Amino acid sequence: MKKPLLAVVLGGVVLFLWGFISWAVLPWHDMVANKFSDEAAVAQVLKANAPVQGIYYLPYAEEDHKPGEVAAFVNVLPQGFDMNMGKLMGIGLTMQILSAALVFGLLRQTQGLSYLGKLKFVAWVGLTIGFVSHGPYWNWFGFSTSYTIVTILDILIGGALASLVIARFAEENRPDASFGVRPAATGG
To answer: Over 60: is that where the pLDDT of 99 sits?
Structure first.
């Protein structure tokens, strides 16, 4: 029981540290985002026209989309956002540990993979998560290609780094170590 818990916690810590490096050290997320020319004016318009916290589409109706007209996909927080870094870091670390636990659970369902095979498996999982979660925004909402690529690479790299730790501890499947799933009996 100690090895799986250690794998999950260390994998989550690696994901968390990668997130810090990706967002606070590397410039790539800033390079794919733009700043409004007059943030105060945009904030005033948003507060006046989006009184409830949530996602807004501009235009809202599909039939109102016209070439050459402004379109937007915005998460509006009219009351602002509490940037309590201690709280946000705690929640972030908890979410990364949960993510590592989910990947660990997937690895426990595989059989016969070498360490390198486990790393490849987790890399494919990361790439799949990136495409499934961010590809549709590129396609349906016009998110920039550069933003989408950076976001997918961020997920892929974080997953690959965490898998170096997680795969090391994901033991070969045993009937009693795979969340209660026993291999099917073979006839003989």
So the answer is: yes
